[in-house]
Amino acid sequence: MTVWRLLLPLAAAALMACGEPSGDVPERRMALDDSLPPMKTFVSPRVTPPGRSNAEIARDFLDLSFQLESGRALPVFTRFEGPVTVRVTGDPPQQLMGDLDRVIARFRREAGIDIRRTGASAPASINIQTVSRAQLQRAVPQAACFVVPRVADWDEFRRNRRTPTTDWTTLRTRERMAIFIPRDVSPQEVRDCLHEELAQALGPLNDLYRLTDSVFNDDNFHTVLTGFDMLILRITYDPALRSGMTRAEVTAALPRILARLNPDGRARADGARGLSSRAWIDEIETALGPRASMTRRRAAAKRAVTLARAANWNDNRLAFSLFALGRLSLGHEPELALSSFLQAGGIYASSDETRLHEAHVAMQLAAFALSSGQAETAVGIVDAHVDAVSRAENAALLASLLLIKTEALEVLGRTAEAKTLRRESLGWARYGFGTEEEVRRRAQEIAALNPVKRQRT
């Protein structure tokens, strides 16, 4: 279950953080073309195999498979035994079926899982039901979407909440799962839920903040299944494993499995990372959770940075702490925000595995550059990160970056390029942000960063 989902920071917040010398954010809506272009979607996945040692991947597999996100231990290994079927009920949005078929094809091709979609009226191993976001959050307030064992629909879930029926620790094998996804969100949010919840229905139930190349990480930078994730699922369904095995039994089997499935990993150096402390996780969840006040959230982010440094984590966990602090400091402590983003970006830039993470920071820096009139710098920042974002299939982030570049091109007088790029940006925005109203709102927020347009209002 995704406890909280990382939201793309609004470009308007970056405007406030830039400390403009005069005037508020313009209230007049800046014009967009009357009609939006068709929605753009990703077609062919560009998957990179994991680059870590087999010893490290084995530890990741064990920590993912024998513990819940809450920290509770799972007594035995579980998976589906035999073919897996998937059905969808509950008035799914238009884009869902195509995205579901794409990820099922990837499960078959990349993870070797015998899985297929079946009709809505047939019994299934995994039952995907769409409900309203309000309905879902009334039941589990902090969840964007979630998976539950031993039930098939919403009514059955509600009857069996907080009973042994839906307790993952009581499972000995997997036979029936239900996934609940909101139907009234953007196509990208629906797809992201499909990837994460299907992966957890099939395999690991835990998330690890130390992972840099996985959806099994509550930082939510990766939102589609990666090469590492597919390897983890391929291990899960390897013939050498079976439901009911203990951690010791799985540990003994993993070296041979990994030598066969990931031979390149045998020669790589072991880059072991320690476990993330519960204290740090609690601060991060407070900082980015929905319940605390902004003052408490900023204080939690600062404590997370302090804890990460005290643990000598000069890795993605320190960078994520700084990124969270930067986001929460926008409009409140602009110098701290910019400093935090720059430090986070420097850490992310040190590894090829965190190019996508770096791109999230880059969007903030590009917004700063555009708003302060450094249009060439904004263009350069965007151009350096578009490929990583496209590879990760993050349409919302891609649209945001391209819209920033569009505004920068207009500042530079390159109006023809800007017009063409705006159409492309809005096509991605339709997938990433959903409704026409939301697309226009996001575009207007980024247009408000354009210093030339601000001078006209």
Give a brief rundown of this model.
With 457 residues, the chain is mostly helical. Helix content is 51%, strand content 5%. The radius of gyration is 22 Å and the shape is globular.
Characterize the structure shown.
There is one protein chain. The protein is globular, with a radius of gyration of 22 Å. By secondary structure, the chain is mostly helical. The chain is 51% helix and 5% strand. The chain has 2 domains: 11-42 and 276-456, Serine Threonine Protein Phosphatase 5, Tetratricopeptide repeat; 54-266, Collagenase (Catalytic Domain).
Low-confidence stretches: 1-30
What does the overall shape look like?
Answer: globular
Spell the H/E element sequence.
Answer: HHEHEEHEHEHHHHHHHHHHHHH
The share of residues in helices is 40-55%
Q: Quaternary state, please?
A: single chain
CATH architecture of the largest domain: Alpha Horseshoe
Main beta sheet:
5 strands, mixed
Radius of gyration: 22 Å
| Helix/strand class | mainly alpha
Q: Can you tell me the CATH class of the largest domain?
A: Mainly Alpha
Query: What's the rounded overall pLDDT mean?
Result: 90
Span between N and C termini? 45 Å
Q: Tally of extended strands?
A: 5
CATH topology of the largest domain: Serine Threonine Protein Phosphatase 5, Tetratricopeptide repeat
What topology emerges from the helices and strands here?
Elements (H helix, E strand, L loop, with lengths): L10 H7 L36 H12 L18 E6 L6 H15 L4 E3 L8 E6 L1 H7 L6 E4 L4 H7 L16 E6 L4 H16 L24 H10 L10 H15 L16 H11 L5 H17 L5 H14 L4 H15 L6 H17 L3 H17 L3 H17 L3 H19 L2 H12 L3 H6 L1
Parallel strand pairs: 1-2, 1-3, 3-5
Antiparallel strand pairs: 4-5
Helix pairs in contact: 1-13, 2-8, 3-6, 9-10, 10-11, 11-12, 12-13, 13-14, 13-15, 14-15, 15-16, 15-17, 16-17
